[in-house]
Amino acid sequence: MIVLVGGEKGGTGKSTLATNLAVWLAYEFGSKDVLLLDADIQSTSKKWADRRGDGDPSLISVAVAQATGDVFKPARELATKYGQIVIDAGGRDSKELRTAMVAADVLLVPTRASQPDLETMDHVNELIALARGLNANLRAYAVVSMAPSNPMINEVGEAQAFLKDFPEFVLAGTFVRDRKVYRDAILEGKGVVEMNNSQAKAEIQLLGQEIYGTAE
Ligand SMILES: Nc1ncnc2c1ncn2[C@@H]1O[C@H](COP(=O)(O)OP(=O)(O)O)[C@@H](O)[C@H]1O
Ligand SMILES: [Mg+2]
Question: Of 10, 33, 65, 132, which has fewest CB within 10 angstroms of its CB?
Fold first, then answer.
């Protein structure tokens, strides 16, 4: 399955979700079956993988490749070798994003619960409709990301209400909270399932199960 973590906006947690899902997948499906495809010229996922490679050698390995421009062909070719591909595709309405949307089985669009981020979802909705013209079976989810962990802030509830009515995507039931451990994990070349934070670990496991339909 090819899962694209993409969207128009930068800094919404795309690379964070992509790297965390790739690590979770390596444990679930085995390292040999998983590839993280970095299709963002900022190379956040590639740099994360380099830090992982230089770090603790006992960590499960996560293969990484890079592609830019039209990523349809590289993604589909890699999918003949790897059962599970996660694509990290940048934060603009880019060629990489559009072509990856045609190659993918699933699109995850992380969005923060704040208004400027939510406003970009109209255009994301349009892009998904366009991609479906070429890729009719694309499944698309919005994922509320970096949600405030203070329960007094009802931004999440407001975001959920806003996101539930778009025709082209559904809202993932699992959302990802703003936790320092996600920033630490990126710097250490790890996934939060390898870190000492049971809440973050549970979020990624639940999201993984929701997207991949696996159950523990
Ligand atoms: N759930 C989270 N909790 C805390 N910090 C996060 C979370 N998700 C992302 N970040 C941080 O926010 C910044 C942007 O995240 P990143 O995944 O690089 O976004 P994108 O790939 O969409 O540009 C990074 O510094 C990252 O560590
Ligand atoms: Mg990124």
Answer: 10
The secondary structure of residue 61, as a DSSP letter, is P
146: its two tokens = 């970096």
CATH number of the CATH domain containing 137: 3.40.50.300
Local structure of residue 48 (DSSP, 8 states): H
Would you tell me how many other CB atoms lie within 10 Å of the CB of residue 155?
16
Q: Between the CA atoms of 174, 130, 76 and 88, what dihedral angle is there, to the nearest 10 degrees? A: -40
Q: Which of 182, 184, 190 to mutate to test the pocket of ligand 1 (most atoms within 8 A of CB)?
A: 182
Ligand nearest to C-alpha 40:
2
In 134-178, DSSP assigns E strands to 139-144, 170-171
Q: How far is the CA of 80 from the centre of ligand 1 (A)?
A: 30
Average pLDDT per block of 10 residues along the chain, 216 residues long: 96 97 98 98 97 95 98 98 96 92 98 93 96 97 93 86 95 96 98 98 98 78
The domain of 200 spans: 2-212
